Amino acid sequence: MALRVTLRARARPMLREKRADFAESCTHLDALSPLRVLERGYAIALHEGTGRAIRSKEEVKAGDRLRVRVSDGEFGAKVEPHG
Prior knowledge:
By secondary structure, this protein is an alpha+beta fold. It folds into 2 domains: 1-32; 42-83, no CATH class. 45% of the residues lie in helices and 19% in strands. It has helices at 2-32, 34-39; strands at 44-47, 65-70, 73-78. A 3-stranded antiparallel β-sheet has the order 1-2-3. The chain is rod-shaped.
């Protein structure tokens, strides 16, 4: 019985520390979430057909159809010639 009490007494601070570490990790992961990035005003442009994210202007040409993902949904877009 005494051993059980001792183990619990020693385990409590360790569990508290691990829970705090876990909560901090969750906060960091949440900040890096692509959905949180969108909430800060960014958008992700996706190829209409493949759904792949566009990382460079070289990946699109005039007339391509895109889906643009923002924090509260998506909308369509069409690539037009620039200048």
